[in-house]
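Response to reviewer comment R2.3. The reviewers asked that we include at least one raw input/output pair. We reproduce the pair for Adenylate/guanylate cyclase domain-containing protein here without editing.
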Amino acid sequence: MTSLRAITRKRSVRKALVAFLGSALVVLVMVLPDDFPVLSHVQEIAARADRGVWDIVLRVTGGPKERQDIVLLGIDDASLSGTDVDPQVVAGDPILGMMTTRFPWDRSVWAAAIDKLSDAGAKLIVIDLFFSEETFPQSDLDLAEAIGRHRDKVILTSAFSETGVKDGGETLYTLIEPIPELFGPGPDQTRCGFANFKPDDDGKVRAVSYVTTLSEMNGRPHKDSERVYSLAGEILRALGKPVPEGRQEMRLALGRKEGARSIYAPRSVRSIFVPDDWKRNYGEGSFFKDKIVVIGPTAPRFQDQHATIGGVITGPQLHLQALTCALEGAYVRPLDKQHATGTWLLLLLCAVAAAVAWSAWIKRPIVSAVGALGLAVVVLAASYLLAAKAFVLVMVVLVVGTFAAGWILAQSYDLVTERLERGRLHREFRRFVSRDVADTLVRDPDLYRGVASGRRRRVVVLFSDVRGFTSRSEDSDPAELVAQLNEYLSRMVDIVFKHGGTLDKFIGDAVMAHWGALEEGDERDNARAAVEAAGDMLEALDELNGKWMDEGREPFKIGVGLHLGEVLAGEIGSRERTEFGVIGDAVNLASRIEGMTKYFAVPLLVSGAVVDATDGNAKLRCVGSIRVKGRHEPVELHTLSRDPDLDEAFAVALALFQKGEFARAAEAFLELQRADPEDGAASRLAKWSADYAVEPPAGWDGTVVMGSK
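Raw output as returned:
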C-alpha cells in the first residue's frame, strides 16, 4: 500500500510540474517583448480573442443613455438632393437656393446656419467640416463675420493629415486647420478641435484621445504648449468640464435593434431653412435652446464611416459618443498588459497556480474535466459581472487559456503515461491469458465483466494434440524438445488468433481454443473460422516439419478435433487464481473427437454440428457416425477431403457400411485403400467392416459404438 501511495504521489507531482510548465509557457510568451514575429502573432491572437469577448460584454451591458441636450444636423442625401422641397420655397430663399448646387456649398450657408441656431439659443454650434482653403472672398467673409458674432458658441474642425513622408518607416503627420480669417484676432480665437480617431488593429474604434500633440502623433517627445484638443475635448472645454487625459476606452450608447447607429440619429440640416419644418419640427427654434448642435456629413457619399462594437456609424455620431462618454464618465478599465501590467501579470500567475493545484489534487479525469469547465464558467461569469457593474475588463480568454494550457497538458501527460502503462500491462497480461481475452478486458471492461460472470453460449471448441509426444520426451534432449514445442505452439496460437479464436489453455502439448464464447457473433461465422484455422494449422505443421527435418529434428504429427455445442463460459478458478474458459459436454466431446483422430488415422475430425453451421461449404467428407462411451447421442464425423472421385466412392462404401452390408463395404473400403494407401479413414472402416462381417453387432443402426474413451 505504501508503495502504491508513493507511486500515486510521484505521479501527481509530475502532473503538477507539467501543468506548471504548460501554463508558465503561456505567461512567458505573453510577457516577452514582441520583437519576434511568432511571439507578436501569438500575442496579437490572444489580445484579439479577449477584445472579442469584451465587445460582446459591452454590447450586452450597453453604455450611457442618449443625451437629450445634444443634436446632430446631418448633411444627408435629402439635404444634398433638395427634391422634396417646394421649388417656390427654394426660389424665395437664397440659402436654400445655394443648397441645391453641387457640394461643397457656398460658405454663406454655414454663416446663415450659425446665425439661425445661435438666435434660437443653441449653447454650442460645432461644424464638423474642413475650411482649410479659401473659396469666394465674400463667402469666406460671411462665414468669418458669423463666427465673429458668436465666437463663444462656435467650434470648428481641424485634422491630422499624413504628409506622405516617412521617418524611419513611420508616416509623419501635419495639422490641417481652418483658414486664419475664421479664427479671428486676439487671444480669444475661435475654438477648433481635431476630428481624428485611431482604430484598433481590426479596424474598430474603441477608444478616444481627447488631447494630443503633433509631436506625439509623429512619435516624438512633446511639450504641453503643443496640446491640441479633439472636437469632443473642445466641447468639454467650452462647457467648463475637465478633459480626460490619455487614451480612454469608451462605453458606447447603444440602441436595442440598430446598435450605435440609432443613437444621435441625424436630422437634415436643410430642414432648419425650410419654414414649415422650422415651425413644425423645431418650434420656431425653441427646440435648439441650450443644446449642443453638431453639423456634419452623414450621407454615405462622404465615406465618413467608422466601425465600432455597436456597428458602423458616421464621424459626427462618433464625436457625440465620445462627448457622451466624457460627460457621463462612461469608460471601461481594461486589465491588460498595456493598461495594468501588474494586475495583468498577477491574474496570469493566479491562473498558473490554479492549473497546478487542480492538476495535482483532482485525480479522476471526469471530475477534473467537469470541475475545470466549472472554473472556466465561474471566471467568465465573474468577468461579466465586473464589466457590467464596475466596468472593469479582465482578459478572460488569456486567463482561462493559461489555466487550460496547463490543465490540458497535465491531462495529456496523464493520458499518455496511463496508456503507456496500460500498454505495458496489456503486453504482460497477454503472456498469461488469451490475447483476445486481454484485449477485451482492456478495451471494454464492462463487456468482459458481463461475460466473465458466467453465461451459456453455443461455441465451436477446438482441441489439438501432438501424437507420441510423451514417449519422445523420454528419449529426446529436453531443451531441444521444449524449444521445438514452443515454436510449434507459437505458430498454432498465432493461427487461432488470426481467425478470431480464443486460446483457452495449453494442456501439456495440447491446445484448446474456442470461437464465440467471448463476444456475440454468428455461429456460422465462428464455425467457418474454426475450420479454416484447423486447416491452416495442418498446413503450418507441414511447413514446420519440412524445416525441422532439414535441421535434423523429428517432425510432429497432430490430431485436431472440432465440435459445436452449448457450453458454460466465464471465469473459472479459485479465489487466488482464475482464468476465462468454457466447460460442458461440448468441450468433452470436442476432446473425444480429437482423440478419435488416432482411430481413423486422420489429422482432423469435425463434428456434423460444425459442418451444418458451415452450410456444407467446407471441403470435408463424412467418415461415419460414432457413439462415444458415456454419451447416448451419436456424433457424425467428417475429415478433410482427399479427392472428389475418391470421396464419392468413399460415400458409397460408407452407405453400405451403415446399411449393414459389411462384406460389400469391406471390399469397397479395401479398394479405396489400394487406390489411396494413406487414406486412414478407409483403413479404419475396412477393418470395422471386416470384423462386423464375421460378427455383426446386435441392434445395428449404422452407428459405431466406442468401447473406450
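Residues 428-433 have pLDDT under 50 and may be disordered. The longest helix spans residues 396-430. Further pairs are available on request from the corresponding author.
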